[in-house]
Write a structure and sequence with these properties.
mitochondrion, binds glutamine, Amidase signature (AS) enzymes, protein biosynthesis, ligase, about 475 residues, Glutamyl-tRNA(Gln) amidotransferase subunit A, mitochondrial, GatA
């Protein structure tokens, strides 16, 4: 009830696209009954959770914040949604995002932008007063980051205890950093993607946003596991439930990738990054500088691979099977064209066009195949570092704290989201687990997160170190 009333009170944040009040209340009632009867309870029994609106939910509209899927009601639950429900979680609603999870601000969905709850914190407001007046109060808010900004705002505003995001290039970790939360991207293959409407199949992972590392571990334990409906899930997952307390970090080796010290990095983030490295060192860990030499190519490489997969994935939205349908009086070709023009925003259409270009027969080798080779080099960079004895990498999550919306929207979304993913994207290319942990506040009183990247399928170790670090 408290969470539902907070959802209503914070409606202006635009965190939710659909609030599933009736569903949540019914589930809460059932949970109460189980409790009263002394029946066995799930790990998430009675816990309010929210789900990003690109996960299919049976009987509940699933829009991807796009006109294309407005009104689309899936006939089945994504595996991760089903697992949350099986563990007794209460579904509070479906959260807002950038259209089809393309973006890093959560400003681009058809239902309007998500506002960062920290925009309204006392400390930030006080600082804001010193700024020159004249801006429209309505536009005076900070972005959440994205594309899982609705999930981040929902947890940050206490409307739920955990939320599912998706993470293809940083979409869970980026908003977690901007909203002062834990954002976990599990290893690729640990958690099923079945029912997650794809962006880049080879990089998409369901992500978890929570207030603490322990909470993230509990949710991961509920979600992880082989799924016959996702052939990329592994058979034998680790069970990271109940993390051990790490008292001693002296056996750990922490790598600091030197290529991550980019000129665009804000001074405040850099200084917290240094402080964190010093903390590990002063507690006895070995902290070493390492090199990931192909880092500079990861964003360009991502652009080719992402758009190529987008061009192929989006072919299913033809106006016949799902959601929006254009003018039926036209030819089939024209029906496709009007459907897609009306259904997709310009970011999605732009990516379909770029991807189609990269996949043209004459371009395939020069762009797509070359990008795959570069991806291999990036994967090898990580392998070399981990093989040399490094346990985790410590990096910033984002270049700076959450930006004011006006500043963010001024910049071209495509350029912006390319820059924003500089620290997070490569982990998706390599399928590695990564987590953003809030480490402090900026001088404006806004949260800053740092990222830990671990070895593939060493999610439990990563979470244990993150717990020590949080
Ligand atoms: N910002 C990246 C993009 O727009 C990543 C998005 C994501 O992780 N879903 O493609």
């Amino acid at each position: 009830q408290k969470c539902l009333s907070l959802i209503k009170k914070t409606k202006f944040l635009n965190a939710y696209i659909t609030v599933t009040e009736e569903v949540a209340l019914k589930q809460a009632e059932e949970s109460d009954k189980r409790y009263a009867k002394g029946q066995s309870l799930g790990d998430l029994d009675g816990i309010p959770v929210a789900v990003k609106d690109n996960f299919s939910t049976s009987g509940i509209e699933t829009t991807c914040a796009s006109n294309m899927l407005r009104g689309y009601v899936p006939p089945y639950n994504a595996t991760v949604v089903q697992k949350l429900l099986d563990q007794g979680a209460l579904l509070m609603g479906k959260t807002n995002l950038d259209e089809f999870a393309m973006g890093s601000g959560s400003t681009d969905g058809v239902f309007g932008p998500v506002k960062n709850p920290w925009s309204y914190s006392k400390q930030y407001r006080e600082k804001r007063k010193q700024k020159p007046q004249g801006e429209n109060e309505d536009s005076d808010w900070l972005i959440t980051g994205g594309s899982s900004g609705g999930s981040a705002a929902a947890v940050s505003a206490f409307t739920c205890f955990a939320a599912l995001g998706s993470d293809t290039g940083g979409s869970t970790r980026n908003p977690a950093a901007h909203c002062g939360l834990i954002g976990l991207k599990p290893s690729y293959g640990l958690v099923s993607r079945h029912g997650l409407i794809p962006l880049v199949n080879s990089m998409d992972v369901p992500g978890i946003l929570t207030r603490s590392v322990d909470d993230a571990a509990i949710v991961l334990a509920a979600l992880a596991g082989h799924d016959p409906k996702d052939s990329t899930t592994i058979q034998d997952p680790v069970k990271p439930w109940m993390l051990p307390s790490l008292n001693d970090v002296s056996k750990l080796c922490i790598g600091i990738p030197k290529e991550y010290l980019v000129p665009e990095l804000s001074g405040e983030v850099q200084s917290l990054w240094t402080k964190a490295a010093d903390l590990f060192e002063s507690e006895g860990a070995k902290v070493i500088e390492v090199s990931l030499p192909h880092t500079n190519y990861s964003i360009v490489c991502y652009h080719v691979l992402c758009t190529a997969e987008v061009a192929s994935n989006m072919a299913r939205f033809d106006g016949l099977e799902y959601g929006h349908r254009g003018d039926m009086d036209l030819s089939t070709e024209a029906l496709y064209a009007t459907t897609r023009r009306e259904g997709f925003n310009d970011v999605v259409r732009g990516r379909i066009l770029s991807g189609t270009f990269f996949l043209l027969k004459e371009n395939y080798e020069n762009y797509f195949l070359k990008a795959q080779k570069v991806r291999r080099l990036i994967v090898n960079d990580f392998a070399n570092v981990f093989n040399s004895g490094v346990d985790v990498l410590l990096t910033p999550t984002t270049l700076c704290e959450a930006m004011p919306s006006l500043e963010f929207i001024k910049e071209d979304n495509r350029t912006r989201s390319a820059q924003d993913d500089v620290f997070t994207q490569a982990a998706n290319m390599a399928g590695l687990p990564a987590i953003s942990v809030p480490v402090g506040l900026s001088s404006k009183g806004l949260p800053i997160g740092l990222q830990l990247i671990g070895r593939a399928f060493c999610d439990q170790q990563l979470l244990t170190i993150a717990k020590w670090f949080e």
